[in-house]
Amino acid sequence: xxxxxxxxxxxxxxxxxxxxxxxxxxxxxxxxxxxxxxxxxxxxxxxxxxxxxxxxxxxxxxxxxxxxxxxxxxxxxxxxxxxxxxxxxxxxxxxxxxxxxxxxxxxxxxxxxxxxxxxxxxxxxxxxxxxxxxxxxxxxxxxxxxxxxxxxxxxxxxxxxxxxxxxxxxxxxxxxxxxxxxxxxxxxxxxxxxxxxxxxxxxxxxxxxxxxxxxxxxxxxxxxxxxxxxxxxxxxxxxxxxxxxxxxxxxxxxxxxxxxxxxxxxxxxxxxxxxxxxxxxxxxxxxxxxxxxxxxxxxxxxxxxxxxxxxxxxxxxxxxxxxxxxxxxxxxxxxxxxxx
Length: 340
Description:
The chain is of the alpha/beta class. Helices cover 26% and strands 26% of the residues. It has ten helices and 15 strands. The protein has helices at residues 46-52, 128-131, 134-147, 162-171, 186-195, 208-215, 232-238, 264-267, 290-304, 319-328; strands at residues 6-14, 17-24, 32-41, 82-89, 101-104, 111-115, 120-121, 154-158, 178-182, 199-201, 220-225, 240-248, 271-274, 310-315, 335-339. Strands 3, 4, 5, 6, 7, 14 and 15 form a seven-stranded mixed β-sheet that branches. β14, α10 and β15 form a beta-alpha-beta unit. The two termini are 18 Å apart.
């Protein structure tokens, strides 16, 4: 196969605008491979912060991912969920890599060069589209490692976007007497019931919080705030019982959360815990590492088959359409995928 010299890459240009640009492919260096992308998944949480210009400029994009180590400044590439096929390797790399389908934490590009150490071969039994959800499944696993649900606990999950859905799907495997989810969009509430929620409610309905108090008269033991909306954090605290835990998996970017700490939070000894996938909780670091967590994420992808929640498949050249859809009509989307 003749090595391509050009690729198409997606750039966030300014708030509300992305562009697909042609550029030269970099040369392969030691231990590197060239991958032809098959598809990539858009993160409706983090990528919408970039799309809307709501990211904090003082942080690195992602200190744990080589390709995302720079700062937030337009124009920029972003994305962390690409699946493709290895089409070339340098002489110091085992030739058996050629032809493998691989996952990479990599921006949206038609071809990319990466160290083979950063490529994750797909399990033989897993489809390309199920593999696209690896990063989000790893995030969901991390939420549970931080939340530590206990036999018999009553659990609420705010937000049933794709990360919230995967978190709910994992929680449904626990013996929980109450697993309740909230999302304003009907499509996502229906999916939530499919993966195992006992109830999925509309937080905008005036009767919802009365219904929740009837279902959980002493509050929830564990609440996950995964909606991306900082206003929800106070609702999460209000629904948490004595000495309960609120796991904040949302990244709010530049949006401020005005937390009311003078009421139940203070008297009920409620704990607010940050959970972010770039690290593991220190209490588990003696036995857990990222490799173990990633292995577990692969296993659960095979069990849950999240590709059924892909709502749109859009060609890379129509990427603007994809981002506008997520931004303006979120009620129609769960997972949007770019095809190459």
